Amino acid sequence: MRPEARLGIDLGGTKIAGVVLDHGGRRLAEARVPAPRGDYGATLGAVADLVLRLEGQAGRGCSVGIGMPGSLSPATGLVRNANSHWLNGRPFGADLAARLGRPVRIANDADCLAVSEATDGAGAGARVVWAIILGTGVGSGLAIEGRLHAGRNGIAGEWGHGPLPGPGDDERPGPACYCGRRGCVETWVSGPSLAADHARRHGGTPTAEAVVTAARGGDAAARETLALHLDRLGRAAAQVVNVLDPDVIVVGGGLSRIPELIAGLPDAMRPHIFSDAFDTPVRASLHGDDSGVRGAAWLWGTETV
Fold first, then answer.
1. In 219-268, which ranges are E strands?
2. pTM of the shown model
């Protein structure tokens, strides 16, 4: 029997957000709670409780989709690559399904961004949507014809943990990454990385927001940091575009609120694109912080390809 509505959960590092959408995308209920840290059982319980709470608010049964850091291994069903490390190696999908007494669908949070924006967001109507997250971490997801493309091994879009293309002498071996490597794209183009790079070059302990504000005010050091950040982002994104050639690039995460990055990214990519023509639009996510939770809900009804 078809569920009466779709429920999505965005499991973040500091909060768990949930929404219930009807089949036309109308919001029926929403809520958010703090995310337990370092405690797998508490995290599982908080997600299950939020699902039941939202169904009570909406007054109807729902399909359940979950967006989370990392992903489920297709080989073992266990969580892998999550920066919420207490989830790694755990059967989160199976445990949650058992707790709720129904199947659930789980995808990486960047995959959920792609599904949301391809369904009714900044990528609606485009055949191939590449959605990238630039925030505390760096990731991306791919939607084709409005449907999630997770890939054979469930890692499509994992560009954050490859090496920065074309590194200069001062970019080798690069900062240490939590994944165990050095110089990953995430260590160069995330929000914390922007702030850390400024501190390495100019001292102080600024936030990314403070660097951007200073650059807008004409501060030469901050403008240099922002320009270098955009150059690195352009190199990293162009490598993916040369392989994928998407119809639109949608940017989400905290750094998507920096108009200078959105506006400057095409020109930053262009020297590294293997083509005499490059007109791919780059757009900020239409649904902003809601994209993850909306995309989780849309995991039911937009099958993977």
1. 248-252
2. 0.92
Q: How confident is the model at residue 130 (pLDDT cuts 50, 70, 90)?
A: very high
pLDDT tens-digit series, residues 185-195:
999 999 999 99
- Peptide bond before 173: cis, by omega within 30 degrees of 0? yes
Using CA atoms, how far apart are residues 215 and 163, in angstroms rounded to an integer? 27
Q: Assess contact for 294 and 65: CB atoms under 8 A.
A: no
For residues 138 and 185, is the Cβ–Cβ distance under 8 A? yes
Tell me how far CA of residue 210 lies from CA of 31, 199, 215, 230, 258, in angstroms.
30, 12, 9, 16, 12
Picking from 40, 52, 42, 36, the residue whose alpha carbon sits closest to that of residue 102 is: 52
pLDDT at 104: 97
Contact 220, 102 (CB under 8 A): no
Tokens 């009714």 sit at which residue? 120
- In sequence order, the β-bridge partners of residue 108 are 68
Beta pairing class for 5-11 and 15-21: antiparallel
